[in-house]
Write a structure and sequence with these properties.
- The structure holds two protein chains of two kinds.
- By secondary structure, chain A is an all-alpha fold.
- Chain A has eleven helices and no strands.
- Chain A starts with a helix and ends with a helix.
- In chain B, strand 18 and strand 19 form a beta hairpin.
- Chain B has eight helices and 22 strands.
- In chain B, helix 1 packs parallel to helix 2, helix 1 runs parallel beside helix 8 and helix 5 runs parallel beside helix 6.
- Chain B is of the alpha/beta class.
- Chain B has three domains: about 170 residues, 3-Layer(bba) Sandwich (FAD/NAD(P)-binding domain), CATH 3.50.50.60; about 55 residues, no CATH class; about 160 residues, FAD/NAD(P)-binding domain.
- Chain B is globular.
- Classes of the chains: A mainly alpha, B alpha/beta.
- Chains A and B meet through helix 3 of A and strand 18 of B.
């Protein structure tokens, strides 16, 4: 009984964040002035602005934070970092939280930022180079064929313009467009993932 | 011209604001000889530019007048105005201080009759009003100026304007041939009381002090409220001269911010709380003050003052560091944007006038006074604990302090200096 009562006040989540989230050790430095939330250009789209996320971490609200889609709204504009009077790397912490939630498998499954990030990762790691055409087409068709065609038609004039000025190669859909040491890059990424998994204690 | 008798039993006080005056008086009243030097043409410093003090809300003229009376009656203090220290050399008990004295172009004959000011037509920005108004180029620095003597601004020297001033003077007080002088003053100990300056608000880019007319600083607001100020004591905003009835105060404008001043300036919370009284004083219930803050630091016994302001229905407290300010072009109203910490509500609040409670920065970087011997802290104030020379920081040269604490600190510095010159005089007996 006593242990339970103590457990309740044990802020394990702050410690967990400090240990596992990029720049997590800086969370405790926040003094709740709120300049980050006010400075975020996407602020109104966040359910919990950064300042509230920091407070929730300190209050031990693990599930609310990690399943939230708020930190996925960050576009890395760095306005918050520039203005933070305590120089907290807010952008890094937001991406760190998103990444951590994703690795734990509890990030919101349908969050478009997360899905795009996955597509991007798959795209770049498969050949060692980003294939922009495949990436954008993949993005259009993310929500099914019908909406993909609709979005594709909407973007058609832009696509044609890019083709005319040789900024887009239609052959990209079929060509490899990769780098030379593709196999080596994949080996490196595999090794790096292993090291990270081991260090952060994710199941191998 | 300026003859100064000083020995290594003399205490040199640098800076003639409230701290320097206090240090000089305390030492002189203990029987020590003091040379008090001041950069400006008049003593009084930033305290003389305040409308009211906190927490008693009395006028600074009162406290200054008492000090000036003590000063006039004391033969042991030699006051040099328009004087600035160039170099401090020597060691504890035996310093030589090089002092540059700028010409005033007005001698001791001046009776402050004002005839020169009337004769001259050229105008200069008035530093006493933080350049919010203009003043004639032959001027009395302020109503309470000590010495009560006019000054000719260097910009009119060599022009017909200066000749006009000279012709108008009935007392042969204008001396256009005065030149800059360099003096070397001996001293056993130095009290360094060079005070503070308001942090440059234009550096806080998101607040638009350099772009939005109706964003001003707390020291400027102090001048607006003062009957001797540029608006005759009316709270008129700069853009259109309209009465500012809905005033926002932004705390920590520069302070507690690693991008600006690392330290808490300690006085700004009380200054803004005090200034909400100015709004109430002018407009009663029609006035509206909003304080945007991170946390209110009304230190020790000032809690009572804070609670009184809290009880005032026309004062709102918003716990939030404002993210940025934009200007409503149609009305000229500054609009404050941010998110408050109590509930995380997003706001876009328009006000008539915004007052930035700017932080305190030391006037002189302490590291440059006597490199090695006088040590600066992280913000450039004199670090009393690490300083090995007998150069004692007093008032805001040593820390961000309110008037009360500055005076305490000046008395402490004076006592330290007295101990040094006592040691010197014992050694010579």
């Amino acid at each position: 009984m006593t242990t339970q009562a103590v457990e309740k006040y044990h802020n394990d989540f702050l410690k967990e964040v400090e240990k596992n989230v990029e720049m997590g050790h800086m969370v405790k430095m926040c003094m709740q002035c709120g300049v980050c939330s006010g400075s975020c250009p996407l602020g109104p789209a966040w359910e919990h602005p950064p300042q509230e996320i920091f407070m929730m971490i300190r209050a031990g609200k693990r599930d609310e934070v990690l399943t939230s889609d708020s930190m996925w709204m960050c576009t890395s504009c760095y306005n918050c970092i520039v203005r933070c009077p305590r120089e907290l790397p807010i952008t890094h912490i937001m991406h760190g939280l998103a990444n951590y939630a994703h690795r734990l498998g509890i990030a919101p499954k349908q969050n478009p930022t997360r899905r795009f990030a996955q597509m991007f990762w798959k795209n770049i790691t498969s050949t060692g180079r980003v294939n922009e055409l495949k990436l954008s087409v993949g993005l259009y068709f993310m929500d099914g064929i019908a909406s993909g065609i609709k979005k594709g038609l909407e973007m058609l004039p832009v696509g044609l313009g890019l083709m005319k000025t040789k900024r887009l190669d239609p052959m990209g859909m079929v060509s490899g467009h990769g780098c030379k040491g593709r196999a080596d890059i994949q080996k490196m990424i595999k090794k790096a993932t292993e090291i990270e998994d081991k260090r952060k204690g994710y199941a191998a | 011209m300026a003859e100064v008798v000083a020995t290594n039993e003399t205490i040199l006080v640098v800076g003639g604001g409230i701290s320097g005056m206090t240090a000089a008086l305390e030492a002189a009243e203990c029987g020590k000889n003091v040379v008090l030097i001041e950069k400006n043409p008049s003593l009084g410093g930033r305290v003389s530019q305040l409308y009211r003090y906190f927490p008693k809300l009395c006028h600074p003229t009162c406290g200054l007048e008492i000090n000036l009376k003590r000063l006039r009656g004391n033969k042991r203090i030699r006051v040099l105005t328009l004087a600035e220290v160039a170099k401090v050399e020597g060691k504890s008990g035996d310093y030589s201080v090089t002092v540059n004295i700028k010409p005033r172009y007005v001698n001791e004959n001046c009776t402050a009759c004002g005839a020169c000011g009337e004769a001259v037509s050229a105008e200069i920005p008035n530093p006493f009003n933080y350049n919010l108004s203009k003043i004639k180029a032959a001027y009395l620095p302020n109503a309470m100026a000590y010495p009560q003597r006019f000054v000719l601004d260097a910009s009119i020297i060599g022009t017909p304007e200066a000749d006009k001033a000279k012709a108008a003077c009935k007392y042969n007080a204008i001396d256009l041939d005065q030149k800059e002088e360099i003096l070397t003053i001996k001293a056993g100990a130095v009290v360094w009381a060079t005070g503070w300056k308001p942090y440059d608000a234009a550096k806080i880019q998101p607040y638009g002090y350099d772009r939005i007319a109706n964003v001003i600083t707390s020291v400027e607001f102090e001048r607006l409220a003062d009957p001797h100020g540029p608006t005759g004591g009316k709270l008129l905003r700069p853009s259109d001269g309209k009465e500012a009835k809905n005033v926002a105060f932004i705390q920590c404008a520069g302070s507690r911010d690693r991008n600006h001043l690392k330290h808490c300036s300690r006085i700004c919370c009380m200054a803004s709380l005090k200034q909400t009284n100015y709004v109430t004083e002018k407009y009663g219930d029609e006035g509206q003050s909003s304080i945007y803050y991170i946390d209110i630091r009304a230190i020790d016994r000032f809690e009572d003052f804070y609670q009184k302001v809290r009880a005032n229905k026309t004062v709102k407290f918003i716990k939030s560091k404002v993210a940025n300010i934009t200007e409503d072009k149609a009305t000229g109203n500054p609009v404050l944007h941010g998110v408050d910490t109590e509930g995380y509500h997003r706001y876009d609040n328009a006000h008539d006038l915004v007052v930035l409670a700017v932080g305190m920065e030391p006037n002189v970087d302490a590291g440059k006074i006597m490199p090695g011997g006088v040590v600066a802290d992280v913000s450039g104030f004199i670090d009393i604990n690490s300083t090995t020379e007998a150069v004692f920081g007093a008032g805001c040269a040593s820390n961000a302090l309110d008037v009360n604490r500055a005076v305490q600190s000046a008395t402490a510095a004076s006592l330290r200096a007295i101990q040094v010159v006592n040691r010197v005089s014992r050694a010579e007996v």
